[in-house]
Amino acid sequence: MKPTPPPLSFLDRYGGPDFQPLYTASVRVTGGEARHGRASGSARSTDGHLDVALRLPTELGGPGGGTNPEQLFAAGFAACFHGALNLLAARERVDIPDAEVTAEVTFGRDPMDGLFTLAARVRIALPGVERRVAAALVRNTERLCPYAKMARQGIDCVVYLDA
After folding, report:
1. What is the pTM of this model?
2. How much of the chain is in helix, strand and coil states, percent to nearest 5?
3. 34 CB contacts (<8 Å, ≥6 apart)?
4. Cβ-contact 73, 65 below 8 angstroms
5. Cα(59)–Cα(68) distance, rounded to whole angstroms?
6. Contact (CB, 8 A) for 142 and 148
7. Residue 67 gets which letter from DSSP?
8. Which one-letter DSSP state was computed for residue 8?
9. Where are the domains of the chain?
10. Which of 24, 36, 54, 137 could form a disulfide with 41 if both were Cys (CB 3.0 to 4.6 A apart)?
11. Residues 6+ apart with CB under 8 A from 31
12. CATH number of 26-67
């Protein structure tokens, strides 16, 4: 089946009083040889389409040779932003066939509590699109993309221990 973008109806506003789930991804991480998901684990989605070895990058003292949470988050952020950007461009009838989104996610020390935090930078290239039009598309995409909203506003998050 040929891949197609989602319909423009994805841009229709929802007016309900509660969060309306549309899709849930589930990924399980195990610890591997070091019994540490980040250092030697694996991540596998319930549908099996994502199946990657997790490795601590050399910059953090690990061997490298696998992906890491920051790369996975950056990939999700860039893909989501790219998709939202394309939806908005299609609605505005702006052709952006060579659009590129690069997300950089940095793991670092948090000056607030001395522990860890993430920082993200997202670069968008829209070759051939007038600067004013491109800036408006990017600004509106920031409002639409759930990853950008999460980075700006936080996310509803519940952490619990299975029985």
Report:
1. 0.94
2. 35, 20, 45
3. 40
4. no
5. 12
6. yes
7. B
8. G
9. 26-67, 68-155
10. 54
11. 37, 40, 41
12. 2.20.25
Q: Which of 142, 140, 136 is nearest to 121 (CA)?
A: 142
Check the CA dihedral 83-20-45-65 and report its sign.
Answer: positive
Q: Please tell me what DSSP assigns to residue 10.
A: G
Q: Please report, for residues 27, 116, 117, the alpha-carbon distance to residue 160 in angstroms, rounded to integers and kept in the order given.
A: 16, 21, 21
Cα gap 122→105, rounded to integer Å: 9
Q: Hey, is 115 helix, strand or coil? A: coil
**Amino acid in position 12:** D
* Residue 99: how many other CB atoms lie within 10 Å: 20
Backbone φ and ψ of 58, nearest 5°: -60, -30
Residue written as token pair 């948090």? 110
Could you tell me which CATH number the domain at 68-155 has?
3.30.300.20
Q: Say how far apart CA 19 and CA 62 lie, in whole Å.
A: 40
Beta partners for residue 111, in sequence order: none
